[in-house]
């Protein structure tokens, strides 16, 4: 599903070069649930952004399914993101003035899918996160956990094989966070590949495998029992 080979990334601020990732070799099979961990500044989010095609690789290669991502132009990257990847963020990123159903429909609007098909698929996605009865509520009428479920439904609405999540429980209390992780667990059991950044051990415990970063390099890659 994912193959990174000798990937490097450096950020430049004026004359200062700041290495973010160093010689990353990472293979993730279809259907895996992988947690990425490490201290602040270790390169976790940079790695997730590269996996999610939100940032460009400076050196090395990245193959996602059968596509060489590092050789893709901007239009091709946008198509890859729309077809293959769903995104879940810590702060939900919902549009407050439209209801949950419309929020879930947004990726399909950009893809030019007809209204009736958008609604059918958005309702199905809300059902997958057990929130079909809240589709007509605006985000401000939903709890934090419900808002994250809407965000997950939006990420799933185009049936991507890969879900990338950046601290998906970071804005939630522990009980709600556990409920959200159960949603992730169920999605993974249905075949969705998940790559998740988290600093919380109890959240990482839902993953089958943990990759640790330090100073931009992988220092541990273990399968959790």
Write the layout of secondary structure elements.
Layout lengths: L1 E12 L2 E13 L4 E6 L5 H8 L7 E6 L2 E2 L5 H11 E4 L11 H11 L4 H14 L15 H13 L5 E5 L7 H16 L3 E5 L3 H4 L4 E6 L2 E7 L2
Parallel strand pairs: 3-8, 3-9, 6-7, 7-8
Antiparallel strand pairs: 1-2, 1-4, 4-5, 9-10
Helix pairs in contact: 3-4, 3-5, 4-5, 5-6
Question: What is the gist of this entry?
Answer:
This protein is of the alpha/beta class. The protein has helices spanning 44-51, 74-84, 100-110, 115-128, 144-156, 174-189, 201-204, and strands at 2-13, 16-28, 33-38, 59-64, 67-68, 85-88, 162-166, 193-197, 209-214, 217-223.
Brief descriptors of the model:
single chain, 225 residues, Rossmann fold, 6-stranded mixed beta sheet, 4-stranded antiparallel beta sheet
How large is the share of residues in beta strands? Answer: 25-35%
Q: Briefly, what CATH class?
A: Alpha Beta
How many separate helices? 7
What is the typical, i.e. mean, pLDDT? 91
Please state the overall shape, judged from the principal axes of the Cα atoms: globular
The share of residues in helices is 25-40%
SSE succession: EEEHEEHEHHHEHEHEE
Distance between the termini: 22 Å
Structural class: alpha/beta
> Can you count the beta strands?
10
CATH-scheme architecture: 3-Layer(aba) Sandwich
Q: Sheet with the most strands?
A: 6 strands, mixed
Q: What is the topology, as strand order, of the major beta sheet?
A: 6-7-8-3-9-10
Give the CATH topology.
Rossmann fold
Using the CA coordinates, give the radius of gyration. Answer: 17 Å
Tell me the count of domains. 1
What would you give as the CATH superfamily?
Answer: P-loop containing nucleotide triphosphate hydrolases
Instruction: Give the low-pLDDT segments.
Output: none
